[in-house]
Design goal:
heterotrimer; A mainly alpha; B mainly alpha; C alpha+beta; B: Helix Hairpins; Four Helix Bundle (Hemerythrin (Met), subunit A); 9 helices; about 0% strand; C: 5-stranded mixed sheet; 5-stranded mixed sheet; 10 strands; elongated; binds heme-A; binds dinuclear copper ion; binds copper (II) ion; EC 7.1.1.9 (chain A); transmembrane (chain A)
Chain lengths: ~525, ~290, ~350
């Protein structure tokens, strides 16, 4: 990035971090709020992961061993919901909070109080969701996609709580996204033109736009579920002139952009890390920006690829197939740019780079299976099998989660002021890399061989595969505890980190000391 | 963007209101959920109490938060750049509201153009009609559902038309109030603002009358099939937005009386007026797609 | 019968789908080798530890256009066969046999168009196998009491719908998977050339026992199929006569309880549980319930007609009158309900003719 002239200086209202619990409850500081988001998301990752462990334990062998089918469905559902809305999205928001103001040379987020509000809604929303598991009749058991009428007429009472908890999660995300967008549009340091912004900022800018565009649609969808279940409407009931498939259209109009919400910021992170550890400028900055925008634009036109088996007319199936396939083009541009950035660079393999490289390869594998799913006639075979489960865990776990790990390893020294334990970090990487593939790769085979998803029990031909998958799952889960330990260690102490611990790193965040002072850029730096 | 603007950017110190707001929303969600569950079982529960407690907390939060905000604004802590932030924030908020309505308009279009037609046998759905709904003929407004529920349909003449005219006029008067503010003509400001508020209240009253008419005379209710569903959801959510907008206008009115706002600095007023225009535009779409067509 | 890849299936269409799958897979492999190859090359050769100095290039319009256009062309190459296969799959016209397939929680119902033949198809795997009390059979979870039977060599059209939630009717060997949407009918078709038994499963989350509603289809030579069909028609006739005969007869308590238990386990226990206690908040208990103890007419009504808006189905057309009588009797006397009520087929008949 560009050079900085006006270094930060001490200004009139320079309050230091207040202490005690009220610091966290009342804070308006983007770094505090960023930390809150990150811790929250990590806790949710553990909770959602624990549910995945229940799923994997039940599926370890054919037959019903540990849990009832109804409870199994609750685990699947809440695992999906928690991971999507509780782990990945808040983690990205946390990173945005920490890094965007520092990257664009702003003193804070544009709307700091609203920022704190966005965060504190989340613990309440998820407490309600988790509490509903203990109600009579159990929590939501209709999949994270809550298709009607399973979620309306045929669901348990907790549905009302599910609906309202999604409502307030949505409010939180929308406010968070507005904050990001306004910060980026309005708070850039002088000279920080749009086309000089780091890609993380760009990808988040576009992500925020997607969020504001689709979270309200999700709110509409849950509202109609609520009225169909409790107030006698028939949006999703043919007898009243509605259509259950209409639910899916509305849901996926939200849902598909949502999955890109969970990957675009990853692209930004990787686009920062690969150049840093290749010691070479990012290849094709402008085309990266355009590709991101193209992916976001196309994401509004592909939603029905989740619905190929619902019986749409052929021309609609063709339209959605073609648009979906097209997304591979801008995504490919990104992958090629990363590879070209590495080409003839001077590469080193610190933990952030290790995770970023694993991201590129494993995400691309997930992208390939996505492309296969896009081919409508073949999707008839893949749909609702473990092939789909394999696809989205590759893009979400070894994609989104790996990029979040990479980001944490990249910026931890900046956040805590300490270097972390490199040995542990590498152990975490290798353990994760191997186990994640043992966990998710065989799922492709299970799916191709015909194992449906969302089942608590399966026919014996899938026994071996599931056993391997479960073992990979337990190993991957345990590996994440290494990360937890590493972060705690790093927060509590360690070798002092310099302002810029990575030789090739670029950007304003590295011009301030480590740990970043409570207030940075009270006076904006000048970007040339 | 000039440099000195950045230097003055006001970052508020910590504030208790956000977490109060979060608690409020949490109580509302929890309470509303239980209220709905209790109601579905005809049971009296504590859900409503939690819901009202949540609403009370939110009101306290709004009051406290805006008081702080107004004090800061009046004591000149705000920079022009912060004004930009607020305005952009409001604009994006309105965009999110548009998308919320889009979900329901989408449901309306889908039901009308696709679902009802398919139930009537259109497209590749001849068998749907022949086997499952042999007596059903597609029509809109859907006064008789495939399941056999009958209801009336709401015409566009009369009340809806008056309401449309009222809201369009109120948009104009709201604009003139704003012009008055910008010209520092306080009389014009208060006068037009008052007219806008009155028009908003009349709209709400007529809307209520229309619902009574629909329920009692047309038999058009929330559970009379997709036509009634989309009708009530769209007009209902719109009505809630008008209510909110009217309350905001009333608050603005009292602030104007207290001498708040200057031609240069009046974000709250501007936001309210944007909101009001947005609510009007939604109504016009509603009028066209729900009533006329 | 362990397999790792998509089945090639037994129809022309399933073969085309398989070929398409493999083609796309190989293309992805090739792209993968190129992309990952370049990456690994950099990772191995362009390391700092090898004393590499970084190059400075960071843009190249020609290259960027190339790697936009080439993938686009590859995609067009994929889209062409995909389109023609899809269009063939969606063409349900000119079918010779039509079957109405209705999903419900958690079984399939088949009705042959233009005949009276219709029946339910339920999971046949014994509960003990699922609960690990017995060794699992070869077709564990993939076996049903009455499979769908279709003729080979003829185009068979499926009209697929549902009585409650969304299910999805899937037979991998035919490459047919279509959602069963309540209130709407979807169409699919197949033309099987080889006789055989083909197994599939419900492929849309449909509640608690989604994992336990398999699909089994038997394809028979047309002659055998016709014989089978004739037998079904005759059996149907016999059943009706039997029903009339049974109406005149009455069961004693032991007979009723024995038959009732069998019916209960097959049709009711999935929800109300074998011990009659239901699942609180989801499925009501029958043990000690007001209806089972007092309200006999209500009890018969709910079993015969079901309760709309809930998972409680109408069993009037699924069970014989005698079975209904027996199961109601059972429910009124099992688990300590002990009402002593004995319901007869004639009572059900009287109720239904009201
Ligand atoms: C981060 C999340 C994420 C991402 C990024 C993606 C990316 C993609 N997804 Fe995925 N998807 C999910 C999350 C995601 N998906 C989830 C959660 C589900 C399941 C939801 C549920 O049902 O619960 C799902 C389901 C899903 C389906 C529905 C399957 C079914 O239920 O039947 C489909 C079908 O088209 C699909 C397609 C794609 C495609 C084409 C991409 C593309 O964006 C991928 C593009 C990338 C590449 C192709 C690789 C790199 C490109 C190159 C190297 C260039 C050259 C390549 C070629 C020309 C081939 N996805
Ligand atoms: C970003 C999102 C995300 C993430 C990170 C994950 C992470 C994981 N997911 Fe999941 N998953 C989804 C999103 C995600 N998933 C979605 C959207 C669905 C679809 C839901 C639906 O069908 O509706 C799904 C569904 C899904 C299924 C299919 C369920 C079914 O169809 O019935 C399975 C099955 O194996 C699974 C497994 C896992 C595993 C093993 C992990 C692991 O990566 C988790 C690892 C983490 C931990 C384990 C936590 C850390 C460790 C501890 C807390 C200590 C305890 C550890 C041990 C005892 C070993 N997930
Ligand atoms: Cu029926 Cu799943
Ligand atoms: Cu998608």
């Amino acid at each position: 990035m560009s050079t900085v002239v006006g270094e930060m200086d001490h200004h009139d209202h320079h309050h230091h971090a207040p202490s005690g619990i009220t610091r966290w409850l009342f804070t308006t500081n983007h770094k505090d709020i960023g930390s809150l988001y990150l811790w929250f998301s990590f806790i949710m990752f553990l909770v959602g992961g624990a549910m995945a462990m229940v799923i994997r334990a039940e599926l370890f062998q054919p037959g019903l061993q540990l849990v009832e089918p109804h409870f199994f469905n609750q685990m699947t559902t809440v695992h999906g919901l928690i991971m999507v809305f509780g782990a990945v999205m808040p983690a990205f928001t946390g990173l945005a909070n920490w890094m965007i103001p520092m990257m664009i040379g702003a003193p804070d987020m544009a709307l700091p109080r609203m920022n704190n509000w966005s965060f504190w809604i989340l613990p309440f929303a998820f407490a309600i969701l988790l509490a509903s598991l203990f109600m009579e009749g159990g929590g939501p058991a209709f999949g994270w996609t809550f298709y009607a009428p399973l979620s309306t007429t045929y669901s348990s009472d907790s549905t009302a709580l599910f609906v309202f908890s999604v409502h307030i999660m949505g409010i939180s995300s929308i406010m968070g996204a507005i904050n990001v967008i306004v910060t980026i549009m309005n708070m850039r340091a002088p000279g920080m033109t749009y086309m000089k912004m780091p890609l993380f900022v760009w990808t988040w800018f576009i992500t925020a736009f997607l969020l504001i565009a689709v979270m309200p649609v999700l709110a509409g969808a849950v509202t109609m579920v609520l009225t169909d279940k409790y107030f006698g409407t028939s949006f999703f009931d043919a007898a009243g002139g509605g259509d259950p498939v209409m639910f899916q259209h509305i849901f996926w109009f939200f849902g598909h952009p949502e999955v890109y919400i969970m990957i675009l910021p990853s692209f930004g992170i990787v686009s920062a890390i690969i150049p840093a550890f290749s010691r070479k400028q990012l290849f094709g900055y402008a085309s990266m920006v355009y590709a991101t925008a193209a992916i976001a634009g196309l994401s509004f036109l592909v939603w029905a690829h989740h619905m190929f088996t619902t019986g749409m007319p052929v021309f609609a199936e063709l339209f959605f197939m073609y648009c979906t396939m097209l997304i591979s083009v801008p995504t490919g541009v990104k992958v090629f740019n990363w590879v070209a950035t590495m080409w003839r660079g001077s590469i080193t393999f610190e933990p952030p780079m290790m995770f970023a490289l694993a991201f590129v390869i494993l995400f691309t594998i997930g992208g390939f299976s996505g492309l296969m799913l896009a081919i409508t006639p073949v999707d008839f075979q893949y749909h609702d099998t473990y092939f789909v489960v394999a696809h989205f865990h590759y893009v979400l776990v070894s994609g989104a989660i790996f990029s979040i790990m990479a980001a944490a390893y990249y910026w931890l020294p900046k956040w805590t002021g300490h270097m972390y334990d490199m040995g542990l970090a590498k152990l975490h990487f290798w353990a994760s890399l191997i186990s994640v593939n043992v966990l998710f790769f065989p799922m492709h085979f299970a799916g191709l061989a015909g194992m449906p998803r969302r089942i608590p029990d399966y026919s014996i031909q899938f026994a071996d595969i599931n056993q391997i998958v479960s073992i990979g799952g337990f190993a991957f889960g345990l590996s994440q505890l290494i990360f937890l330990w590493l972060v705690i260690k790093c927060v509590r102490g360690g070798e002092k980190a310099p302002a810029k611990p990575w030789e090739g790193a670029e950007g304003l965040e590295w011009t301030v000391p480590s740990p970043a002072p409570y207030h940075t850029f009270d006076t904006p730096p000048e970007v040339k | 963007m000039a440099e000195q603007q950045h230097e003055k950017y006001y970052v508020p110190a910590s504030s208790p209101w956000p977490i109060v707001g979060a608690i409020g929303l949490g109580l509302i969600a929890f309470g509303a959920g239980h209220t709905v569950i209790d109601a579905s079982k005809d049971a009296d529960g504590w859900g409503v109490n939690v819901l009202f407690a949540g609403i009370a907390v939110i009101l306290i939060m709004l009051f406290g938060w805006f008081r702080d905000q107004i004090n800061e604004s009046m004591s000149g802590l705000y920079s022009k750049q912060l004004g930009h932030s607020y305005r952009q924030g409001m604009a994006w908020f309105i965009f999110s509201e548009i998308m919320f309505f889009a979900a329901f308009f989408g449901a309306l279009f889908y039901a009308r153009v696709i679902a009802v037609e398919w139930l009537g046998g259109a497209g590749n759905n001849a068998m749907t009609n022949a086997v499952l709904w042999p007596d059903f003929v597609a029509h809109w407004p859907l006064t008789e559902t495939p399941g056999g529920t009958e209801s009336g349909a709401m015409g566009w003449m009369g009340l809806p038309l008056y309401n449309t005219i009222i809201l369009i006029i109120s948009s104009v008067t709201c604009h003139f109030a704003h012009v008055g503010l910008e010209k520092n003509n306080r009389r014009q400001l208060t006068g037009f603002l008052a007219v806008t508020i009155v028009l908003g209240l009349i709209f709400l009253y007529l809307q209520g009358a229309e619902y009574v008419h629909a329920y009692q005379e047309l038999g058009l209710t929330l559970d009379s099939g997709i036509y009634g569903n989309t009708f009530y959801m769209l007009t209902g959510f719109h009505g809630m937005h008008v209510t909110l907008g009217t309350i905001m206008l009333i608050v603005m009115f009292f602030r104007v009386l207290k001498g708040h706002f200057t031609p240069e600095s009046h974000f709250a007023f501007q936001a309210t007026s944007w909101y009001w225009h947005f609510v009007d535009v939604v109504w016009v779409c509603l009028f066209i797609f729900v009533y006329v067509l | 019968r362990s397999q790792l890849n998509l089945t090639q299936g037994v129809t022309d269409i399933s073969q085309r789908v398989y070929d398409l799958h493999m083609t796309i897979f190989y293309i992805c492999c090739v792209i993968g080798v190129v992309v990952f190859g370049a990456m690994f090359w950099s990772m191995i050769r362009h390391r700092k530890s090898k004393g590499r100095k970084p190059a400075t290039f960071h843009e190249n319009v020609k290259v960027e256009i190339a790697w936009t256009v080439i993938p686009f062309l590859i995609l067009i190459g994929m889209a062409i066969p995909a389109t023609s296969t899809l269009i063939a799959m969606e063409d349900t016209s000119e079918a010779e046999v039509t079957v109405l397939v209705t999903g419900s929680q958690w079984k399939w119902h088949y009705k042959y168009f233009d005949t009276d033949v219709e029946y339910f198809s339920l999971l046949a795997t014994p509960r003990q196998q699922i609960e690990n009390k017995l060794d699992k059979g070869e077709n564990y979870l993939l076996e049903v009491d009455r499979p769908l039977v279709i003729p080979t060599g003829k185009k068979v059209r499926f009209l697929i719908t549902s009585d409650d939630v969304i299910h999805s009717w899937w037979v991998p060997d035919f490459a047919v998977k279509k959602d069963a949407n309540p209130g709407m009918i979807n169409e699919a078709w197949t033309k099987v050339d080889e006789p055989g038994i083909y197994r599939g499963q419900c492929a849309e989350l449909c509640g608690k026992d989604h994992g336990f509603m398999p699909v089994v289809v038997i394809a028979k030579e047309p002659a055998e199929y016709d014989a089978w069909m004739a037998e079904q028609v005759a059996a149907k006739q016999r059943a009706e006569e039997e029903e009339q005969r049974l109406l005149a007869m009455s069961m004693d308590m032991d007979e009723a309880m024995e038959l009732g238990e069998r019916v209960y386990v097959g049709s009711c226990a999935a929800c109300h549980q074998a011990n009659g206690e239901g699942i609180p908040g989801v499925f009501p208990a029958l043990k000690g319930s007001d209806m089972a103890l007092n309200d006999m007419q209500g009890h018969i009504d709910i079993v015969v007609n079901g309760k709309t808006g809930t998972s409680m189905q109408a069993f009037g057309n699924q069970l014989t009158m005698q079975e209904i009588a027996a199961v109601v009797t059972y429910e009124r006397n099992a688990w300590g309900n002990d009402t002593g009520d004995l319901v007869q087929a004639a009572d059900i008949n009287a109720f239904m003719n009201e």
